[in-house]
Amino acid sequence: MTQERFRTIWLKDEITVEVIDQRFLPHRFITVELTTCFDAVDAIKKMIVRGAPLIGATASYGVYLALLEIQKGDKPTEYINQAFEELANSRPTAVNLFWALDRMKKAVFSQNTLEEQLKSAFAEANQIVEDDVETCRMIGVHGLPLIEEIWGKNGHQTVNILTHCNAGMLGCIEWGTITSPIYQAKEKGIDIHVWVDETRPRNQGANLTAFELTKHGIPHTLIVDNTGGHLMQHGMVDLVIVGTDRTTRQGDVANKIGTYLKALAANDNNVPFYVALPSTTLDWTITDGLKEIPIEQRDQNEVKTVFGKLDTGELASVLICPETTPAANYGFDVTPARLVTGLITERGVCPASEEGLTRLFPEHKR
Ligand code: MRU
């Protein structure tokens, strides 16, 4: 992998989708081939791929792979319905999954023959991927002025940004959402330093965000999840930018567990708290995030163990609590719109409110 932008999902050939196995970063760069719909479901469930836009893209190719299985005679024609259902049940919170499956349903069921369905599904999945690349690039274009403003105001001193989880290119296809303005700021010669929350229990910050920032030569410091408040109290954070898995029409933001606490600390310390998101992460069908966004609960062993590289170079999990201690593993939390300074989308930056969002996306006005 080079300094240049890379992709997280690609076609190896017309019957094989390849993804980076994100479970082993930053220690091993391993790729996995997906040749069946089950492979796509499994990749999403096991978090081989993760991050809202990438989950959606993987599911899109999953539909295409299901049609290929039908074409080969490995599955009956009706399997396509089961494929949609299994993909929809792979993870509950990121709305991009359901958005992508809706788009794929239209592409598939508008066709008459299997050959036409295959062609249409292939084109649509590829388009979903290409659209995400351009969308994330535009999030950077609109987010960059926020960083430029701080850089101008502070007399061209380093801009300190805090982020939680990984909403970088590894969660998307290229660019990333929160990283797009950061990478574009770097290209403009702005000094940036990123505080990276480790993001227990899966450590997406330590494993993935730190990996990406290293590859891009962005200065960064890893912190434990509870450090952000202290840094903000001491003026060491200029800006918080996080991603999201689902944002409601009134601007409530679901993101990786712990995001809400960062928003509270930012609010208490007058630190701007922005959320970068493609419009594919907006769920226009719901309003109240606390009541309406399904929060994923994962296996308790993710909390009870830590996975990493031993001195021997081997990768291993170690238990960090008594074997019998039960653990709760909520994957996401909801930050109410009132704590969000603004939403950075591909169409511009807006307040986290229905009015703000529908000004940018008037087609969703009611
Ligand atoms: O559980 P994950 O790793 O899929 O959670 C990812 C996040 O919470 C990201 O912040 C979000 O999906 C945005 S990715 C652009």
Automatic annotation (TrEMBL):
Database matches in NCBIfam families: eIF-2B_rel (TIGR00524), PRK05720.1 (NF004326), salvage_mtnA (TIGR00512)
EC category name: isomerase
Name assigned to this protein: Methylthioribose-1-phosphate isomerase
EC number(s) from the headed UniProt entry: 5.3.1.23
Catalytically driven reaction(s): 5-(methylsulfanyl)-alpha-D-ribose 1-phosphate = 5-(methylsulfanyl)-D-ribulose 1-phosphate
Gene name tied to this protein: mtnA
InterPro entries, per the entry: IF-2B-related, IF-M1Pi, IF_2B-like_C, Initiation_fac_2B_a/b/d, M1Pi_N, NagB/RpiA_transferase-like
Function field: Catalyzes the interconversion of methylthioribose-1-phosphate (MTR-1-P) into methylthioribulose-1-phosphate (MTRu-1-P).
Active-site feature positions: 245 (proton donor)
Site residues, Transition state stabilizer: 165
Pathway(s) annotated for this protein in UniProt: Amino-acid biosynthesis; L-methionine biosynthesis via salvage pathway; L-methionine from S-methyl-5-thio-alpha-D-ribose 1-phosphate: step 1/6
UniProt family annotation: Belongs to the EIF-2B alpha/beta/delta subunits family. MtnA subfamily.
Keywords from the named record: Amino-acid biosynthesis, Isomerase, Methionine biosynthesis
Recorded GO MF terms: isomerase activity
Annotated binding of substrate, by residue: 50-52, 91, 204, 255-256
Source species of the chain: Wandonia haliotis
Pfam families in alphabetical order: IF-2B
